[in-house]
Amino acid sequence: MKQKLFYVILIASFALSAVAHYSHMSKTLQFVLCCIAVVFAAGFMGKATESVAHYAGERIGGFLNATFGNAAELIIAIFLVKDGLYDMVKASITGSIIGNMLLVLGLSVLLGGLKFKVQKFNVMLAGYNASLMLLAVVALFIPALFAKSFTTKETDTLSLIVAVILIVAYALWLLFSMITHKEELADVAAVQAEEAHAHEINWSKGKSVLFLVIATVMVAFISEWLVGTLEEFTHKFGLSELFVGAFLIAIIGNAAEHSAAVFLALKNKIGAAVEIAIGSSLQIALFVAPVLVLVSYFMGNTMNIVFTVYELAAIGVSAVIAKSISQDGSTSWYEGVLLLVVYVILGIAFYLV
Amino acid sequence: MKQKLFYVILIASFALSAVAHYSHMSKTLQFVLCCIAVVFAAGFMGKATESVAHYAGERIGGFLNATFGNAAELIIAIFLVKDGLYDMVKASITGSIIGNMLLVLGLSVLLGGLKFKVQKFNVMLAGYNASLMLLAVVALFIPALFAKSFTTKETDTLSLIVAVILIVAYALWLLFSMITHKEELADVAAVQAEEAHAHEINWSKGKSVLFLVIATVMVAFISEWLVGTLEEFTHKFGLSELFVGAFLIAIIGNAAEHSAAVFLALKNKIGAAVEIAIGSSLQIALFVAPVLVLVSYFMGNTMNIVFTVYELAAIGVSAVIAKSISQDGSTSWYEGVLLLVVYVILGIAFYLV
Amino acid sequence: MKQKLFYVILIASFALSAVAHYSHMSKTLQFVLCCIAVVFAAGFMGKATESVAHYAGERIGGFLNATFGNAAELIIAIFLVKDGLYDMVKASITGSIIGNMLLVLGLSVLLGGLKFKVQKFNVMLAGYNASLMLLAVVALFIPALFAKSFTTKETDTLSLIVAVILIVAYALWLLFSMITHKEELADVAAVQAEEAHAHEINWSKGKSVLFLVIATVMVAFISEWLVGTLEEFTHKFGLSELFVGAFLIAIIGNAAEHSAAVFLALKNKIGAAVEIAIGSSLQIALFVAPVLVLVSYFMGNTMNIVFTVYELAAIGVSAVIAKSISQDGSTSWYEGVLLLVVYVILGIAFYLV
């Protein structure tokens, strides 16, 4: 029943977005419809990914889940790159990172903490997550710092090298966390188990692959329409690109993670919720962002990896506060409040800027 | 006997300050007398607060202790705000934060550590304290960073919003630490128990309230006289406002905490000493500073929450080093040395600037 | 046999360097020969120090080991100071600090981790190391920040005061870690035991002292020759002083630590490896750098302690990532990867700048 409703909204919102786009309706209406459509299409893609992962076996499946987890954001961002909207790409990367670390994690910890006094998770995983977050912050901070003394070409060179290094580091992390040290980092396994259990797989192998292709195509179309509305929408409401990218786009692109993490926290599976929130942040910083740099290079106009000082501050601040809260391997409602307070302060600052 | 001497000095120093002020004696003499008087008046206010808290019952009492703990600094600062000395207000806020985290904590840890090889305290509380300190650093850092792109009005708006958010976050922290998770954070309770035991309450209910009112009025008068001497005193000795606010005013305003924390450390109650030192820093950053912003707004001329880069660096550095030292829940004499070394380096830098 | 070969190369490389220097051969050849010679002479000095330390008794021996550990770097740096090459001195200090924290530690953790799944070491020592690293970062950061508002004289004054404070803090650390809290910080003892066992002492007391004097003289000569080649070598290959100082000089000067730490890690003595890597970084920052400031003062032209923003960023970033990785008291191969990734990113940025 609930399943059925999901598909009805998925198809309806997609169709309405298409109509709105091709009949050149008001950009604001297009924006709203595309936002709804992309949330559902991302959810559909999530299901299809899991189903394909199920048939692909544990290891490749884990890899698929990990890399397709942020596929919607990646696709939206590729269309932004294609249109040369580099500032908005970077803003949306920033927004995804801080949205996951502060908003998704904060809501999960707060709501989980209101139901359970203290929630515990794997300390060792928390430590690794924190170190990887620091790597991400460092990898974004160093190019931004040195760029001041660099020519454009040097900046591009450094950006490309850093991008390749980060992708290699992320690949080694998958090797480490899913193969060589899987048992030690139990919560990663817990997430996968959770995901496998949460959704009964009832599609055949062929159907799963077909649905994944369809979902990807749908997300791609909606993303293109959505990106087309942004400029006018932004101007109309007097919003900065920074705010739209970092808050609106990021919240829409991560809607699936938001609900998944909160539901897990409410089932006292805070470890899985933390892994989704932090894991997703890490994936954006260490995989999605570098891939976008490489994509832009192959499109002929390199997008460097130099973020603005505001974006770097937001990412750095989020990493430090998320690290401080997660490092003891236990959470309570007040820690959720702290994360959300930082998110609100950043949101207001980005809105006013 | 010792009690009697206290009251004699309290009254004598207050009277002498008044005479010096109204007969326009040398500003340097006035400054010295007011400094002595305010230390004793703050001590008197502390006793009266505890007595009132005793009669008010555990919860409201805890709240009273927490909010009146820095009442002397708050009153001095309000008189500085009234005179528009915003730079000195911010310097004294900075000085109170770093003075508590470095000087008070450092002396307690060093002297306690010379007597006891290793002193232990509640790790969970240390973790929360560290996260709250980071919130404070973030909340001061973000407005300072964004202010460069802001108009004065936008800066004021952000300052007021951040101030309200911090007061709410602090109120929720009191709710969390004193009500919902009181047992988990045992050292907070330990401080209160300690305070209740340390001083025998021998005033009636009415007397307690009366004494609290008298003490507050005394502190208010001395603060006004003290503030009046600052400008001339500062010029005469060639000191910067930054140094006077951040070191002289802050040490005087926190004299009561200094002695209390050190005595607790020497009794091997390092947990209570840490709670006084760090708790007081947090209260200044998350409650006193925002209240001063709101007070200035209602006085008609908003003091923004933008601190200088020197002040931010001092607060950030102190938070990071205090976090690093407190996070394992145990201390030894060398950690006290580290805290004091950082305090001395900051002191020299502020003196030279 | 192996011993014999060592002495043959030691003497041969020293002799060839001397010939190359005094017959004015190509600077590039001189540079290469001096690099080889200094690695072996530093190794010889290490052996002689241990032998002298053995006869000096445990306490003075520990102190000798600790202070002579970076004697080669100190001597090279003194010759750089003599020639007024302050920028290269600071670059080589930076390089030694980050080389030890990232390259030496990273290689040890990676190679040790490939052999042993998880390696553990003393958590308490890790905590103290982290706090001392933060002190070092703070002590370099504060003068750099305040220097903008300072006259040259004020900067020199602050530099000298900070240098003296750091040397005192380092002396107290030796007192703490080797005398008052030796048992608690077991890994320091482990390093010493390891060092004592690793090399059989077969020199007499007189011979040991004589060899230490000879080794020191050799290092001094080679250092002077090496420094003489740097300018031309740097220009010829279009390298920046920053890159040569921070990467080439630092790797050469620390070659002994590199091999010692990696061998210990491969024997599952990761605690001793960490102590060598981090301990050496701390010694450079808290002892060698301040001593160089004082040396320059007595030579009549004070070298201030103000590092460039790139150097500070590199040191800060290294300290934060090393802290994050070491604070749980256990390591695995991926943490080695993280450290090396940060080293490579910094290396590329310094090369391009």
UniProtKB/TrEMBL annotation, chains A, B, C:
In its keyword annotation, does this UniProt entry include Transport? Answer: yes
Q: Which organism is it from?
A: Paenibacillus flagellatus
Protein task: Ca(+)/H(+) antiporter that extrudes calcium in exchange for external protons.
Provide the GO biological process annotations.
Answer: intracellular calcium ion homeostasis
**Chain ranges of the Sodium/calcium exchanger membrane region domain:** 28-178, 208-346
Subcellular compartments: Endomembrane system
Going by the UniProt record, its keywords in alphabetical order are: Antiport, Calcium, Calcium transport, Ion transport, Membrane, Signal, Transmembrane, Transmembrane helix, Transport
| Positions of transmembrane segments | 30-48, 60-81, 93-114, 126-146, 158-176, 209-230, 242-266, 278-299, 305-322, 334-352
Supply the Gene3D superfamilies for this chain: NCX, central ion-binding region (1.20.1420.30)
Instruction: Describe its membrane topology.
Output: Multi-pass membrane protein
Do you know which NCBIfam families this protein is assigned to? Answer: cax (TIGR00378)
Recorded superkingdom: Bacteria
Entry protein name: Ca(2+)/H(+) antiporter
Instruction: Please provide, in alphabetical order, the Gene Ontology terms of the cellular component aspect for this entry.
Output: endomembrane system; membrane
The GO terms describing molecular function are: calcium:proton antiporter activity
